Amino acid sequence: PPPFCPPSHEVLRDSDTSPGNMDIDLLNPDAKEERSKHKLKRMIQSPNSFFMDVKCPGCLQITTVYSHAQTVVLCGNCNQMLCQPTGGLARLTEGCSFRKK
Questions:
Q1: Which DSSP symbol is given to 51?
Q2: pLDDT one-digit tens code per residue, 88-101
């Protein structure tokens, strides 16, 4: 006979542990779930940062800016502030449009 088992534990049968009865699909993870994971815990490691083209609302010149910029980024033509640093992602100035590169 097996050693003492507390009554709260159920005995597993072969049918409970058969392959193919997984709760989640490991080969096709949910995209929303993958994005929320830490950058090193994703199935395919990828950074959270990116470069973006930011269009100045004043002179419409396009400037390349890092998403996690740690300094204020100014427009080359009109010296208007394009983004300001925060703890993580840089905050774009109101009226600036951007696209990921």
A1: E
A2: 999 999 999 999 99
